[in-house]
Specification:
alpha/beta; 28% helix; two-stranded parallel sheet; ten-stranded mixed sheet; globular
């Protein structure tokens, strides 16, 4: 899923255009190899070689990295619900987004959940795979799905591995925080009831947002993601995905965090989930209690470690799902990178976010 082949063709320094394409092709070839795709496509069509430096050749390589199967169709909306498209612009850039307002919101909005998709996904795809809109109907919260621009990353990955997109008031964090504030004002979201979650690259960006805007995002949900500051460029991003992170930046403030990761994830090493947890605990309460449990849900076994503060509020909740690959646990087959087996990550995140003691 996380195909970090430079993606955004930003201005290069000290490189010719041909060198840019050669470097990008090399990264694509390495990613293809990791997914079991060699010198030819599944249909036998040549994919090109590292020596191909043109954009057409690179686009052909990228096409084989995208999820297989049909894209999700139009989502069925309950009568009275809205799933509107909009865009947000600030000094840092522009991003489109979809907002789901449940029909149940007529009885009052309880909060806002920002959902950040993974590489190659779209807001519609992510909504279908996570089933988050159905939970919004049940619990009366608004969901916003920001969309990464193909102009800023060719594989629609959030640029969590770029130093320019890891700090407050700059790059993608600034755009996403501004977008969130716009939705809060438009839908009169209650104060302190705003949360952010994501998958893969989206989870990595959600962790960054939790650390850079703790006054805005009161809790973070990270599924198959990486800790903040885990990489500084594309090569270190590949290393981080393999479990070899650089020294990650500690959070500047505590953010309640729930982490899901499959122990069979071959794209983002499960140790990254443990590093997110350690990072969250660094800024957590001085006194805490940890409990461990295990069980089976949705046909898969899991291990769980929960950290509670002195008031009994869950501050960090870490789920390791046995046999789960790089996919949303307990997801819907209508979306990509969603596995219907295992604990329902969406339901557990909403439980964690809206816990009465966390208000």
């Amino acid at each position: 899923m996380m195909n970090l082949n430079v993606g955004a063709w930003r201005q290069a320094t000290g490189q010719t255009r041909a060198a840019q394409f050669t470097s990008a092709n090399d990264l694509v070839t390495r990613t293809l190899a990791r997914h079991g795709l060699g010198a030819g496509s599944p249909s036998g069509t040549p994919l090109g070689s590292v020596g191909d430096t043109g954009p057409a050749a690179l686009s052909g390589l990228m096409a084989h990295l995208r999820p297989q199967g049909q894209p999700p169709g139009a989502l069925d909306l309950p009568s009275g619900a809205q799933f509107d498209a909009d865009s947000f612009t600030c000094a840092a850039g522009t991003r489109g987004y979809r907002t789901y307002v449940p029909a149940s919101a007529r009885d009052g909005v309880t909060g806002l959940v920002v959902m950040l998709h993974g590489c190659t996904q779209t807001p519609e795809d992510f909504a279908a795979g996570t089933g988050m809109n159905a939970l919004a109907e049940q619990h009366r919260f608004v969901v916003v799905y920001p969309q990464q621009s193909r102009g800023d990353n060719a594989q629609s990955c959030w640029n969590w591995f770029s130093r320019g997109d890891q700090a407050r008031d700059r790059g993608e964090p600034a755009i996403l925080a501004g977008l969130t504030r716009e939705v809060i004002a438009r839908h009169a979201i209650p104060e302190g009831r705003v949360f952010v979650a994501g998958l893969s690259a989206g989870a990595a960006m959600a962790v960054i947002l939790g650390g850079t805007y703790p006054e805005l995002f009161k809790a973070v949900g990270a599924h198959s993601g990486l800790p903040a500051g885990a990489a500084k460029d594309v090569p270190s991003a590949f290393a981080a995905m393999a479990g070899n992170t650089i020294a990650s930046a500690p959070r500047t403030a505590a953010a309640r965090t729930i982490v899901f990761h499959g122990d069979a994830d071959a794209t983002v090493h499960p140790s990254n989930g443990e590093k997110i947890v350690r990072q969250a605990l660094q800024g957590g309460p001085g006194q805490s209690l940890q409990t461990e449990s295990a069980g089976t849900m949705g046909g898969r076994s899991y291990r769980r470690c929960t950290t509670l503060d002195a008031d009994g509020t869950e501050t960090v909740d870490h789920w390791i799902v046995e046999g789960l690959g790089h996919a949303w646990s307990g997801g819907q087959s209508a979306g990509s990178y969603a596995d219907p087996n295992g604990p329902d990550a969406s339901a557990e995140m909403i439980r964690f976010f809206f816990a009465p003691s966390a208000g």
